[in-house]
Amino acid sequence: MKQKDTILKVLHYIRKYGFQVILSLVLAALTVALTLYIPILTGDAVDLIVDKGLVDMVGIFAIMKKIAIVMVITAVGQWVMNTCNNYITYHVVKDIREDAFRKLERLPLKYLDSKAYGDIVSRVISDVDTFADGLLMGFTQLFTGVITILGTLGFMLVTNVPITLVVVCITPVSFLVAKFIATRTYSMFKLQSETRGEQTSLIEEMIGNQKIVKIFSQEKAVKEQFAEINGRLEKCSLKAIFFSSITNPATRFVNSLVYAGVGIFGAFIAIKGGISVGRLSCFLSYANQYTKPFNEISGVVTELQNAIVCASRIFELIEEEPQVPDKADAKVLTDAEGNVKLESVYFQYVPEKKLIQDFNLIVKPGQRVAIVGPTGCGKTTVINLLMRFYDVDSGSIKVDGTDIRDITRGSLRTSYGMVLQDTWLRSGTIRDNIRMGKPEASEEEVIAAAKAAHAHSFIKRLPKGYDTVITEDGGGLSQGQKQLLCIARVMLCLPPMLILDEATSSIDTRTEIRIQKAFARMMEGRTSFIVAHRLSTIREADIILVMKDGNIIEQGNHETLLEKGGFYAQLYNSQFAG
User: Fold this and answer.
1) Between vectors from CA 143 to CA 138 and to CA 146, what angle results, nearest 5°?
2) Can you tell me the distance from the alpha carbon of 442 to that of 458, in angstroms, rounded to the nearest whole number?
3) Which one of 123, 159, 423, 566 is most buried, counting C-beta atoms within 10 A?
4) What integer pLDDT is reported at residue 285 of this predicted model?
5) Helix ranges (DSSP H) in 319-435
6) How does pLDDT run across 453-504, given as a tens digit for each residue?
7) 8 Å CB contact between 178 and 301
8) What CATH class has 3-197+243-318?
9) What phi-psi label fits residue 565: left (phi over 0), alpha (psi between -120 and 50 degrees) or beta?
10) Cα separation of 204 and 45, whole Å?
11) Are 265 and 163 in contact (CB under 8 A)?
12) Contact 340/157 with Cβ under 8 angstroms?
């Protein structure tokens, strides 16, 4: 994304706070004008000190009172201006974060599947924070600096034109220095931001999978990987900071040239009587104030470069292609019968790797369909397509005779109850987690669902029972207990169709037998899709689909497939050999 486009997008967010921006600019002009008025008063005071014993103390005290009043007004104006700047900055940041989070909820799963979670988190948190710092600095120093330059130039022209020309002739050197640095720091800060996102991804991944790292003794390898990324971050950060840090001494050198030029040239004019000593001291003060903003602005420019880079990364996320919206005339699926039909379905995650090829299936209401096959054959992909987490490349999937692309996603997914091998819990109480699909459920319904899922007994043993608060990773719960909570969640809703993807993979055999009985009751009259590796759990299925390389190679019930002696029989016998 180009810098110009990023700046325009930032201005679009700022436009919403136009009143505060105008007020900030007015106060910046006021404070600058009052600040520049003080050297005039100081010069007047110097001119009242003519010679030893000839000092107008009354006039000096009167001027000092004026200076005190001006300083108080300036301080109040700066406080209000900074308050406005903070208000603008953090409201803009709030708006950007809200837009980014809303976009995350509307992004297709293929985007989240293809990006490192840590990089996405880095964009929404770290990059926005860095952008906020740069934006605040821009408001507090850039505006004030520009107005100070223009105001000082005006005061100097009124005071003495020849000396002002000396200042103006030396000034372009500051612009050249700032431009030289700015053109080189953007790419460096961009690389720094990207590498920081890569580092955040690794840290997030390692913290979330610390047990796996320790089990396979990969601590050394992970440390080496982190050291490599950290080393690259160090190098690109040093380059970015080096170029940005030379700004200050370079512009200070230019400032010293301006100050020296004004002092020398002004001294000759004062000797000839062209300017009073007080006015010359006033001019020297102006020369210092005139060059000081260039020093600040050049520093702001490098910070703004970093801020713009971070803003471009967050805008890339905000402008990602969202999930294809539901059609305007999309049907709301209510009271689904569970008639599911897949016709000539083709799907692949990436163009160069074929997966689902000419998949056909007819499921009647209330039937239990088991999907088995080796890892990577497309079992979970079929579930993703049924839930419309992904859309088919060609062909169609119909529920009750309607293509699911003509059904609202919300109503389609509400019609399914889904229990996955990977559990997902939210931060909150046990009760809140069970109620997720049915927030209005009564206490009796929650307990009944937990009992049906055989989770009630372990919940009662928790410190606060159903009021026990857990984190998103389940806290001190075992994997099996977390899975029981997910099963209870579905037991509470009891939608017309069910998807069980290795739903009992983390449960002990004794509990699994009970859960299977509960599932059997739950699946009565409901269309059910069961993905399983343990073939003992699907003997009672009405249809067993045996998949391999995205295709159905065998189809039938348990007895029929065993009699065929094909691939299913080999899988089954391999699990029960001996």
Assistant:
1) 120
2) 20
3) 123
4) 76
5) 379-386, 409-414, 430-434
6) 888 888 898 888 899 888 776 667 877 788 888 888 888 888 888 888 876 6
7) yes
8) mainly alpha
9) left
10) 64
11) yes
12) no
Each residue of 259-316: pLDDT tens digit?
777 777 777 777 777 777 777 777 777 777 776 776 666 667 767 777 888 888 888 8
Would you kindly state where each structural domain of the chain is located, as residue ranges?
3-197+243-318, 324-415+533-578
**Mean pLDDT, all residues of the chain:** 81
Cα 44 to Cα 39, 63, 281, 284, 346: the distances in Å are 8, 8, 10, 14, 87
Q: Give 117's Cβ-side CA count (13 Å radius).
A: 7
Q: Read off the pLDDT of each residue in 315-320 and give the average, rounded to a whole number.
A: 85
CA angle 399, 497, 361 (to 5 degrees): 50
Which residues are 530's β-sheet partners? 370, 500
Between the alpha carbon of residue 563 and those of residues 558, 560, 566, 567, 568, the distances in Å are 9, 5, 8, 11, 10
| CATH of segment(s) 324-415+533-578 | 3.40.50.300
How many angstroms from the chain centroid is the CA of residue 374? 36
CA nearest 92: which of 5, 14, 3, 25? 14
| DSSP E strands, 502-550 | 527-531, 543-548
Query: Contact 467/502 with Cβ under 8 angstroms?
Result: no
| Alpha carbons 21 and 89: distance in angstroms, whole number | 10
**What tokens does 574 get?**
């391999």
| Cα–Cα distance measured from residue 315 to residue 281, given in angstroms and rounded to the nearest whole number | 49
Element (H, E) at 397: strand 394-399
Q: Can you name the residues that pair with 497 across neighbouring β-strands?
A: 416, 527
**Distance of CA 401 to CAs 249, 298, 387, 388, 487, Å?**
74, 66, 16, 16, 29
Q: Residue 298: what residue type?
A: S
Query: 360 near 343, Cβ under 8 Å?
Result: yes
Report the alpha-carbon distance of residue 294 to residue 253 in Å, rounded.
Answer: 11
If you average pLDDT over each of 41-55, 168-182, 183-197, which comes out highest?
Answer: 183-197
Task: Please give the full DSSP string across 3-67, using - where no structure is assigned.
Answer: HHHHHHHHHHHHGGGHHHHHHHHHHHHHHHHHHHHHHHHHHHHHHTEEETTEE-HHHHHHHHHHH
Task: Identify the burial level of 333 via C-beta atoms within 10 angstroms of its C-beta, where 0-12 means exposed, 13-18 middle and 19 or more buried.
Answer: buried
Helix (H, G, I), strand (E, B) or coil at 225: helix
